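Narrative progress, year one. The postdoctoral researcher (J.K.) led the effort to move from monomer predictions toward full complexes, under supervision of the PI. The following entry was the first complex the group processed end to end, covering 231 residues in total.
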Amino acid sequence: DIQMTQSPSTLSASVGDRVTITCRASQTISKWLAWYQQKPGKAPNLLIYQASILESGVPSRFSGSGSGTEFTLTISSLQPDDFATYYCQQYNTYMYTFGQGTKLEIK
Amino acid sequence: EVQLVESGGGLVKPGRSLRLSCTASGFTFGDYAMSWLRQAPGKGLEWIGVIRGKAYGGTTEYAASLKGRFTISRDDSKSIAYLQMNSLKTEDTAVYYCTKDQYDFWSGSAPDCWGQGTLVTVSS
């Protein structure tokens, strides 16, 4: 199985901050990586796919980059609605695997 | 509007079976792969398996740790995907989600629509 390692596990930030979350794959996955946002009690919501393509309806302050084994999710200017847990997911092959999640908290 | 609604969750005793359903609307169901995932309380996301669409004859793939106990099927005429779970264990307690994949690719694509989830509690 391909292991996905996210960092940090928890991130404290303020409204207006620029934040970056990193995801590392245990082997190359080309560009087959997605990022999801999950709020308590809700299903995850797709933000980015193919490492850098913004899903329709997702605000442009979200961006993704990377390929191979190293990927990042950047939020350019945090808004109150962005405080949530973020997961990366590889879909290079079945079986899909996820990072352990990054909880973004208000400082 | 794409919509997925899971049903069939609840309290079940260890060793018993349960079948979950995922009723889809708003898209041509047979043209897409459908996946099942789960999330144990306070934990991360775990992929269970996928059933491909009609382009690949509804073939399935499963997480190695669950293969043999869990089976995914689909009824394209009713736009429903199923997850049959046998020999349930306490560690199977989780919210179970069905998802629509972006495409019907042989090797997978990102799940782009999720149901609201259904809670399965395995306890005596």
